[in-house]
Every structure is written in structure tokens, then in C-alpha cells.
Design a protein that fits this description.
With 189 residues, this protein is an alpha+beta fold. It has four helices and eleven strands.
């Protein structure tokens, strides 16, 4: 078990924009082929939902959100915080047993790899547009969509839950840098 250490010790509220670290949250990377009926049915039974098939789409259930990252890759994220004392997640164990051990796909716990910034407010995309080449126009990037892009030269995954509520996933090693950049960017909105 890894010791959980939160990289961000503050929250930020400024000019109708708020940012906080969402912690601790279980994150599992799942890879497999949806054309393989055995893979798709086993994952569907374990999750209780169908994996999203369309680019940038998500599926959500009470306890979990599943984000499409690529044709054969998804990020499963707990909708609730988890126990800081353990990295042993029941969902990971179930998927590992029925998917990885059966050579149907790969299951990797990435909880300690990423941190999540929860951004709220009416000017989120004005701030994000300052450092990203992605077009955040709502026609292209609506509610319940996810995109992998660059933000201030850092790889990020952005999950737009609603127009005023976004989760931004960043590698833990870049989180301090990106937090400081977003904090600085809010002063100019």
C-alpha cells in the first residue's frame, strides 16, 4: 500500500471561480476490445453499465463514472471519496480477476498517478482556453464529455460534467505547477 499524500493543501475562490483538489478518489485504467463479447459482457456485469463507445463520451452510475479515453481505453473513477488508509479497491479486484487474469484486457490502478482538480464557476473555460489549444465551444464539448489535451504544456484529461462543473485530471508530479498556473490565470479574468 502506498502512503497517500495530497499534493495540494489549499482551495481557491476568486471572481466566480473555485478550485479544490478532489481527494482521495479511486481511479482505474481499463483496456480491452469492445468487439470481444466476453470482455464487454464481463465488464458490463461488474460495472452495471455499458462502457462508452463514442469518442469523448462518458457513462455514469451512482458510484462510478466511466470516461472514454480511446478506442480500447477507459478511465473508471469513483464518484465518492475513498478510505485514505487503503489502495485496495473492490472494483479493481473484481475487474482484475475477471478481465486481466482471463487475458481479456488490462486493469491498472492509477489512483496515485493522477490528482483531480474540481473547477466550478461560470468562467472555467475562459481560464482553460488561456493555456490549451482545444476549442471548448459547447457545440464541440458539451456536458458529460471528456477530452485529453494540453494545458500550459501539461498533459491533462478534462471531464466537463456541466458548464459550471469540471474535473481536471493531471499527473501528480505536475499538479503543483498546474495549480499555480491556474491560480495565476484567475487574476486576469
Amino acid at each position: 500500500m502506498l502512503n497517500f499524500t495530497s499534493p495540494i493543501a489549499e482551495s481557491l475562490t476568486y471572481n466566480n471561480f473555485s478550485m479544490r483538489e478532489k481527494t482521495p478518489v479511486a481511479k482505474i485504467n481499463l483496456r480491452g476490445n469492445l468487439e470481444n463479447k466476453d470482455f464487454a459482457s464481463r465488464v458490463g456485469k461488474i460495472l452495471g453499465m455499458i462502457l462508452p463507445k463514442e469518442a469523448c463520451s462518458t457513462s455514469t452510475k451512482e458510484q462510478i463514472t466511466c470516461m472514454w479515453l480511446g478506442p480500447n481505453e477507459w478511465l473508471l473513477v469513483s464518484n465518492d471519496t475513498v478510505d485514505k488508509e487503503s489502495n485496495d479497491y473492490e472494483l479493481e479486484q473484481l475487474l482484475f480477476k475477471d478481465i486481466s487474469k482471463m487475458n481479456l484486457g488490462a486493469v491498472t490502478n492509477v489512483s496515485d498517478h493522477y490528482t483531480i482538480f474540481n473547477l466550478t464557476g461560470s468562467n472555467i473555460f475562459e481560464i482553460l482556453s488561456k493555456g490549451s489549444p482545444f476549442d471548448f465551444n459547447p457545440e464541440n464539448f458539451g456536458d458529460n464529455k471528456v477530452v485529453q489535451t494540453i494545458l500550459n504544456n501539461v498533459d491533462v484529461t478534462i471531464h466537463r460534467k456541466t458548464k459550471d462543473d469540471v474535473d481536471l485530471y493531471v499527473r501528480r508530479s505536475f499538479s503543483d505547477h498546474l495549480w499555480a498556473w491556474i491560480k495565476d490565470s484567475t487574476r486576469f479574468i
